[in-house]
């Protein structure tokens, strides 16, 4: 069956360090993968998109990699700040329409 | 732009009552999604519309759930009768059908509690 897995346990890191979040999937052939940020009491907000033929994407302190052989995406936040504390969701799109399938998310806590 | 607008923000009701959740998508967006989020199951797609037409309702849990989109600027999700297991946060999101990025813009959600 199709499955998208993200670390269910919260990730705690120190301010200034690089946070790395993982998104693994099985039985999907995604055309693209997206990462969203969700703060408590709010809806998810889009951060980055990476397509199946791209290895890496960057935006300011954010970097996403996509390995279709390993069926994995890594999401990095460099020089992390307490304001980066949130839940991060990955979402897969197959390209045949607008449907996205979301992972369950990983909660990130950046401590001073 | 005001973004995706959902109402109410919170809804508390008793088992067996009808619940109606409302959504106004971003102007110009013609694809609308209803999601349900719980701790156990995460964010699940219930149904989505393109140009006001339901495309995929395979995520709708059962006949107690129904969704409509009478025009491009309004959609409803109805639960009748409601049950305690329907308690969750319900999100509406919109995007443009022809967008090559399919970035979805979410509302703030409706937190539903069924007692």
Structure, explained:
The complex is a heterodimer of chains A (112) and B (115). Chain A has no helices and eleven strands. Chain A has 112 residues and is mostly beta strands. The radius of gyration of chain A is 13 Å and the shape is globular. Chain B has 115 residues and is mainly β. Chain B contains no helices and eleven strands. Chain B is globular, with a radius of gyration of 13 Å. The N and C termini of chain B lie far apart (36 Å). The interface between A and B is medium-sized, with 20 and 27 residues.
H/E topology pattern of chain B:
EEEEEEEEEEE
Q: Sheet bearing the most strands of chain A, described?
A: 6 strands, mixed
Helix/strand order of chain A, N-terminal first:
EEEEEEEEEEE
Oligomer kind: heterodimer
The whole-number mean of residue pLDDT values of chain A reads 94
What is the tally of beta strands of chain B?
A: 11
Stretches with pLDDT under 50, minimum 5 residues of chain B: none
The span between the termini of chain A is 41 Å
Shape of chain A: globular
What Rg of chain A, in angstroms, do the CA atoms define? 13 Å
- Largest interface, Cβ cutoff 8 Å: A-B, 20 and 27 residues
Poorly predicted regions of chain A: none
| Average pLDDT figure of chain B | 94
Distance between the termini of chain B: 36 Å
Number of helices of chain B: 0
Supply the number of helical segments of chain A: 0
Which characteristics define this entry?
heterodimer, A: 5-stranded antiparallel sheet, 0% helix, B: 115 residues, 7-stranded mixed sheet, 4-stranded antiparallel sheet, 11 strands, globular
SSE layout and pairings?
The complex is a heterodimer of chains A (112) and B (115).
Chain A: E1 3-6, E2 11-14, E3 19-26, E4 32-38, E5 45-51, E6 56-59, E7 62-67, E8 72-77, E9 86-93, E10 100-102, E11 106-111
Parallel strand pairs in A: 2-11
Antiparallel strand pairs in A: 1-3, 3-8, 4-5, 4-9, 6-7, 7-8, 9-10, 9-11
Chain B: E1 5-7, E2 10-13, E3 19-24, E4 31-38, E5 42-50, E6 53-56, E7 65-71, E8 74-79, E9 88-95, E10 105-106, E11 110-114
Parallel strand pairs in B: 2-11
Antiparallel strand pairs in B: 1-3, 3-8, 4-5, 4-9, 5-6, 7-8, 9-10, 9-11
């Amino acid at each position: 069956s199709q499955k998208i897995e993200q670390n269910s346990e919260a990730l705690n890191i120190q301010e200034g360090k690089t946070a790395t979040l993982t998104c693994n999937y099985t039985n999907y052939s995604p055309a693209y993968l997206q990462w969203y940020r969700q703060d408590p009491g709010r809806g998810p907000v889009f951060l980055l998109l990476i397509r199946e033929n791209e290895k890496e994407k960057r935006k300011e302190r954010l970097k996403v990699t996509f390995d279709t052989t390993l069926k994995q995406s890594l999401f990095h936040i460099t020089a992390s700040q307490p304001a980066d504390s949130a839940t991060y969701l990955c979402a897969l799109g197959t390209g045949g329409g607008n449907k996205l399938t979301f992972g369950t998310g990983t909660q990130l806590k950046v401590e001073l | 732009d005001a973004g995706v607008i959902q109402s109410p923000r919170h809804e508390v009701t008793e088992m067996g009552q009808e619940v109606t959740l409302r959504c106004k998508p971003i102007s110009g967006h013609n694809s609308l999604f209803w999601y349900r989020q719980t701790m156990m199951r995460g964010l699940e797609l219930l149904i989505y519309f393109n140009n006001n037409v339901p495309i995929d309702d395979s995520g709708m849990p059962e006949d107690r759930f129904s969704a409509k989109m009478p025009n491009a600027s309004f959609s409803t999700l109805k639960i009748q009768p409601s049950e305690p297991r329907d308690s969750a946060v319900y999100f509406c999101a919109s995007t443009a059908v022809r967008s090559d990025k399919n970035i979805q813009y979410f509302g703030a959600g409706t937190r539903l509690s069924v007692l």
